[in-house]
């Protein structure tokens, strides 16, 4: 800014106090340069070592003189250019820069007082620039650490536990030394998430992996290998109104994606609980009611087309498909750190290899069942022999008496509602979750279908409008109860004999 010789300037007793007032955390150099211009009645500019303006307005100065001061050949200089009196002072800059130059120009000569003000101001500018660089370095380190935490989470999500441990070991020794962990998801306002993440790290004593969720701005994900983390997060929750907590059952580290889905499901329940916390209920899952050998044989047969792929490619496709079936492609992409087009391309590849139509909700539920069974394997035993695999049929898995009893009990909860929720839900699933198509078949409004599906959620104690494990369990219940036709997976298998088709 251009100074005026007749502008009011602070007295000798006041200028030092005013200058020191600028020396506070987070202060910028721009206001200091503006203050110096007013205090000395001069035009002031601060240059870096390349001659780039850092603050103030550029002055017509000899470039060679600026360079001599910046590299240290001169500490300061004074010159007179016509009616202008110029003063140049070297200002130390943080590495990798060498030094900058504080330049002043005014029509009056620089007396002792003005020179003293310039010298002291140069010192304050050095301190502020050093503090700014220290803060910037701290922010860069914090971002790098956050990126590493996210990278570890993404490796766990794709079942690469070895690589996740290798990355984590150098920064958080012992963090992933256990074979199992619980996953928690905390929800707060988007503007408060950074503070919540820091409080989670403090509460868990860096004995848990705390990650700002890449998919949902309001979520913080905590992978907790040690049991104490859950109690500490609940204690933190009690001190934070408007914050919610969902937790998973303890899972193997290779099943982090499953645990994450459980935590998100529990979080939806927590929003309606007085304590604002919920843990995934250990309820009866359909795969646990199926014959283990038959389920394993059918899973091996269905996923056999992927066995010809390289191990890392196969694992990547399976993990991406699992997340893509649980969440939207956009959310899965953010969690995995890839583009949504990459997620869709990988799922399209799996869809092609399996000869499966993922637009069919019953097919998605069946493939999700296979991926769940595949991920649940904890042994390294070889896949079933070809004859056993070929004999496995999805219809046989769903025809077991225990599973059929479970399905009838679950869906029977809907029978007492006068709105005939069961009929609406069956039509909605048959329409692949499309309310408009289901409404056309039922002769009602699409909003009525949505209201009925939403009304079925608390009765079944499962989320239906959001894709995921809850929805696929309800779909499998319809298949086992023979309310819907069993999809032909693999393509050569017949439908379940006698199953009606409600499509």
Question: How would you describe what is shown here?
Answer:
- With 503 residues, the chain is an alpha+beta fold.
- The chain folds into three domains: 14-135, Beta-Lactamase (2-Layer Sandwich), CATH 3.30.450; 159-281, Nucleotide cyclase, GGDEF domain (Alpha-Beta Plaits, 2-Layer Sandwich), CATH 3.30.70.1230; 288-380 and 391-481, no CATH class.
- The protein has 20 helices and eleven strands.
- The chain has helices at residues 12-21, 29-40, 63-70, 112-157, 161-169, 193-204, 228-238, 256-270, 292-303, 311-326, 329-336, 340-354, 361-376, 386-391, 394-398, 401-412, 421-430, 435-442, 446-460, 469-480; strands spanning 43-47, 53-56, 76-81, 84-92, 99-106, 180-187, 209-212, 219-224, 244-247, 251-252, 277-279.
- Strands 6, 7, 8, 9, 10 and 11 form a six-stranded mixed β-sheet that branches. Strands 2-1-5-4-3 form a five-stranded antiparallel β-sheet, sandwiched between helices.
- Strand 1 (43-47) and strand 2 (53-56) form a beta hairpin.
- Helix 16 crosses helix 20 (469-480).
- The longest helix is centred in the first third of the chain and has 46 residues, at 112-157.
- The protein is elongated and about 100 Å long.
